[in-house]
Amino acid sequence: MSTDTPVKNDVEFGSYKYGFHDSMDNYAFKSRKGLDAQIVRQISELKNEPAWMTEFRLESLAIFESRPMPNWGGDMTDLNFQDIFYYMKAANEQETSWEDVPEEIRRTYDRLGIPEAEKKYLSGVKAQYDSEVVYGSLQEDLSKQGVIFTDTDSALRDHPELFREYFGTVIPPGDNKFAALNSAVWSGGSFIYVPKGVKIEFPLQAYFRINSQNMGQFERTLIIVDEGAAIHYVEGCTAPTYSSNSLHSAVVEIIVKRGARCRYTTIQNWSSNVYNLVTKRAMAYGDSLMEWIDGNLGSKLTMKYPAIWLMEPGARGETLSIAFAGEGQHQDAGAKMVHCAPNTSSRIISKSISKSGGRSSYRGLVKVHKDAVNCRSNVVCDALILDPASRSDTYPYIEVEEENVAIEHEASVSKIAEEQLFYLMSRGLSEAEASAMIVTGFIEPLVKELPMEYAVELNRLIELQMEGSVG
Amino acid sequence: MSAVLKISNLHVNVGETPILKGVNMEIRQGEVHALMGPNGSGKSTLAYALAGHPNYTVTDGSIEIDGVNVTEMEADERARLGMFLAFQYPVVIPGVKVADFLRHAVSNIRNPDRKEGEGLIGMREFRKEIRERMNELGMDPEFARRYLNDGFSGGEKKRMEILQLAMLQPRFAILDETDSGLDSDAVRVVSEGLAKLSGPQMGVLIITHHERLLEFNPPQFTHVMLGGRIVETGDASLANELHANGYATVRARHPEAAAENAKAEAAAAV
Predict the structure, then answer these.
(1) How much is the pTM?
(2) What DSSP character marks residue B92?
(3) Where are the alpha helices (DSSP H) in A6-146?
(4) How many cross-chain Cβ pairs, A to B, lie less than 8 Å apart?
(5) Does A469 contact chain B (CB < 8 Å)?
(6) Is the ipTM of this structure higher than 0.90?
(7) Where exactly are the structural domains of chain A?
(8) Which of A114, A417, B17, B32 has its CA 20 to 30 A from that of A183?
(9) Do B96 and A425 touch (CB under 8 A)?
(10) What pLDDT shows up at residue A243?
């Protein structure tokens, strides 16, 4: 039997590919640790925000403080809200071209492959370095069509009316404790407005990463897709590894108007000390289509259930969810579909993989309001458990107030079949290669929905996760 | 010099149950052997044990490939040394494309020292080769893009096994009832395919009930298994006799092994 240890080509990546970090000296501003009204005021002041936003933040803080911690989902006993930096600023000015970006930050992005990505086919890049966007570009033709793609802070300043009309309307601060937290301390994120009838052919892309210890990241994204318009927005997260806990709590609000289409793709790969507590919701109006593609690979605990409210007849919602829970990880992920109008349809496909003691939970809600007749909903959950130490749970909630509807739910749990492993190994594949192949095959139906670059990265990440995990 | 697959006094348990009770066989590259025997005699157990299935425990005896003792080796190591099993029931691997899987397999088999993550065989070269092999086997090139055995008919699965055999070019190929469950056209395709592939570089062990496969691939040796042992070895005429008369005469000649076989069959039926 061979005892050779496989030689890794990319030694620098170690066990966690993006587990590097830059020196901490380049922050233009860093708030003190902890959360109170003074910090919230300070954030708003530093951003030169209008009074209504300062008020909004303070009210949100009060809501956050008044709400108990959720008593369901994952274990958050190690999460100390007073041990977190709520605002940091990496560079004073927002950069306009790649060459002007400070070298250290550029090097970080080089390792994440951002410029290549942009060169290849992306129509615009917004990359968030900690709390502030430092680099952004948008192709001219999109601007000419009236598309607004900017960071959310700039949007508040430069498009105040549009901003105020929609901000906080899909997810009000009172929605849940973490939405309130984000509303109090939000910083950065993307703001996108796609005018009527404008269809953006290429995916718009943004990368986020947490770069400093105990740094909370609270980006706030607002996307408005006007009537008949179309957009595919892609967001990827990677974060370096640190020893103490970090918190990521984002809010994403999307409005998909009549006849419009929106696809929002996320791959999160936070390091395994990050609490990833995110609220994502879209309102889909008549004959529109909203799709969430949601990949959760990293973090210590993720609680995320992208929601679609189907507001008018003919609206469709679809969520594809992939979760990978490795050692010490709990992925509590899923989707919510709320049918508020007749003739609306929804589909949830969830695939989870648990390994080395990891735990993945599917938690989903399908709700049909009274009078929302002729609704259809289909939920499929498949779980793959790689070893006896790992765990998978399914929590499907179905609330139906109307009789004339069609709701289907299927769930399956499988273990990597010994026969599959043997079959592949009998063709010369090592146990690790064979396991990785079975796992990538398991999620292939979702991966093929991703832009090529993301698909490749996701497969590579899963291979890394699988290396040395068996045998 | 041609290599030998040498099976010596092989005892194999499945769980606590002894199935093989001292099997001896030598297969040289270039030879075709037929293995016949009634249900429960241990034919498939021998096939799995040779390929290295973890549930088949060797309790005594050994398996050698070209003088290398592989008895304790994992299935992938044996494959890299030239062992190949065409499965009676090929396994479905959802989401894994035939071409991706085979490119990995071919890379490992042709470069046995390849480490995980190291380069695969060149895409262009591989594509050309798989297209040629598929063409020879009368397979639609579209199969390369399908998920491995997923939604394949019985005949398609068996043809996929033969395609793998063609691409991997093992030194020793074991075909476990590759002809079972196929209509006569499919049996012909598989039989002809094997006949084309096997040559002086390949030792073949054909486990079969079917005449057709042996018609196209006449064996130099026929072995009869009963109660976990090889009870008779002859030439092609023995296979013909068994096809004509069944196993009654063999049972009569070996009453002890026949009794053990009957016990195993009864146990399997419970």
Answers:
(1) 0.76
(2) P
(3) 37-46, 51-66, 103-112, 114-120, 140-144
(4) 105
(5) no
(6) yes
(7) 19-304, 418-466
(8) A114
(9) no
(10) 40
